[in-house]
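B., you asked whether I could sanity-check this one before it goes into the benchmark set. Here's the sequence:
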Amino acid sequence: MSELNLTDFPAGEIPLTPILTDMWGEDRSWTLDAYRAHGGYQGLEKAKTMEPSAVLEAVKNSGLRGRGGAGFPAGLKWSFLPPDDGLPRYLVVNADESEPGTCKDIPQIMANPHALIEGMAICSRAIRCEHAFVYLRGEVAHVYRRLLAAVREATEAGLLGDLKITAHAGAGAYICGEETALLDSLEGRRGHPRLKPPFPAAQGLFARPTVINNVETISQVAGIFKYSDNWYASMGTEKSKGHGIFSISGHVKHPGQFEAPFGITMRQLLSYCGGIRDGHELKFWAVGGSSAPIFTPNELDVPLTYEEVVSAGSMLATRAIQVFDETTSVVRVVSRWVDFYQHESCGKCTPCREGTYWMKQIMHRLEAGKGEEGDVEKLLSITSEIGGRCFCALGDAAITPVTSGIKHFREEFEKGYTTPAWELFPYKRTVVFNNAPAKDGE
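And here's what the prediction gave me:
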């Protein structure tokens, strides 16, 4: 198969790269026939002619990094598994997508599940796995049914050989997006993070060596083998290679999924979105979802790579970009995010369990204009007692919107001592669907 030509664009313009998303608008795109008509499973056929070590080396050479948030090199992660001892070893795909603003893995399974299945088969060959799992949120029953049908199609067509793929529906807990809590849930226990070490590569599912990656990461493996590792590495930057799905929501003209190479800027993505809605201007934006520090218009030209975004003070994470214009109350947004993290805390860690509760109480009274003098300092004190003191990253995720919100908009938080957020920022001005101009005072 010839490589895609993604370079014929004007100088300085970064094109979109619809590779995983190229079939999303096709008729019955989720079927095996549609996927094979677009070259599906050619990568798997190529991988079957290669030794497992060569498959692993190709993934390393491609520069593929985990697309679930951490950005750890996928090939290197796979290589951490100990030598094959003839006993079971597992691949687990994390499809428990649930962070506010994150919406790429579920649409990918809905529109093109066979890309994930092909990637799983290739990964399983590399790590010598005979039983792979997909851990999916139980609420998305229609996606679960579609995945089950796709696995059945691929199995009956003889494409998977001896590989067995099990799709497992979880009970819908955000904490199970953390890989060790996911493993506990998959084993039939309540989803609680495990103390590490041991790490999953050594003792994961059923205490056996396990690779855990998210849907987008494994789905991209199919393209690497359909074309080549050099083709994949030609996109993006030296350290952040390849392409990714940027989920853009909020106060833009055309929200949606935009698949692009790493290194694209938010200013360029906004041009694909049609810009901020008419008559308004950008106030702040969440670059990596609610768990990453917020950005302001000053960061519009930061290249969206793992390294550049960290250098600018945030994290690229899952690329769940939420855009807010000047009509938005930062206090209201942060309060909703804190509500989410407080609700989803598993309760295992005292700093997270108690700290998120107290942050929620303070944020609610600031939003209501009933804050007490010193509440902002109290919030910062609480965040300092949560950060770095928990079993998993949920505690750190919960404090991030609070600390970054105060950093950029402290005065707005302090106005919550006397004035409700809905008076400072009336709801009618914020909603996207209200096209009538607001009257003075509304």
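One thing to flag: Strands lie at 90-95, 131-137, 164-170, 210-214, 243-250, 256-261, 282-286, 294-295, 320-325. Otherwise nothing jumped out at me.
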